[in-house]
Task: structure prediction
Amino acid sequence: MTDDPARGLRIVGAPGGPRMGKKQQRFNKLVMEAARLKKAVRAWSQALPEIHRGIAEHERLRGEYRAAVGEVVRILDRGYPHRSLTKRERRILRELLCDMVREALEEGGGDEELKEIYNRHTQGDFDAEVADDDAAQARIMRAVLEQQFGLDFGGADLRSVDELQQATLSQIDELRREAERQEQEAAERRARRKKSSREAAAEVRREADRAQVGKALQEVYRKLAIALHPDREPDPEERARKTLLMQQLNAAYEAKDLLQLLELQLRFEQLDEAQISTLADERLDRYNKLLAEQVAQLKEELAGIEMPWRMQLELPPTGKLSPARVRAQLEEDLRNVAGMIARTRREREELADPRKLKAWLQEMLAAQARRSRELLARL
Result:
């Protein structure tokens, strides 16, 4: 048996014979697309546990990094009044110290000691500044949501991004309910309206077509169920194997997974390449409808899996994205955070020495002066 069961399901034209028809070509295309999408969904399902473990490790390291930054802040605060430091050195030390506090508390940390250090050096209020920044960001986001997406928050006093998010979700939910209500009313009006003879005939054809498509799925399922049902199997090992296969079969039928059912037929020699290549047009029509539905469902499922990672990596909503790419980015992030922790811990050890602290501040001042000269040179 081939490693790619879907390969055996392709229709192959006879050498020197007529070209395949559109229905046969569509069947081949849908089979390959469904197989590709199933493989992609399966790859994500297998990769997600490892990815989530990596994210948990990343969060742990970020917490470790913030704690290390907090320790450096405390060392700098203790070194700030040292008599060897000049006013310029204290100025840049104060700037660096406050930047580090913001970094250590950037994700809502509640270290009151760090906040007190920040407030003392800035003569301000850390919590109030964070609240002001949050309110400013909420105002910008609110304007975008109202102008570009047509949402209307009226006179609601939304002072934070969290409040805006809740209001947005509530409004979207209300819009969804209103759309459903309108659709239901429209459906009721259509039901009350007397159908023309042409509309009635079309509805009958659609219902008959749906029934035939469902019948085609049932035929494949029943043929496999007769062969795989474990109840009449005397051998215990074979009965256990068929029990698992029957579970797969039932799951595939429940999900309307025609590709899986056809693959099982191929696997148990109920179907071969010659039979696939000579499927009647009527049966091909039914198979193509089922496969098209399956492809649409798989695309939706894959998009739902990928979207959070596209947002995190700032990628467009379309285009190829693989678990390997997410893992590679995560591994790079883990290396970067580990490097940041190592550097911060080295600084923590060095900056406890007032002489090394002074030398470090002089390097910072020199770097600041170089950047200023380079900026002036470009003007």
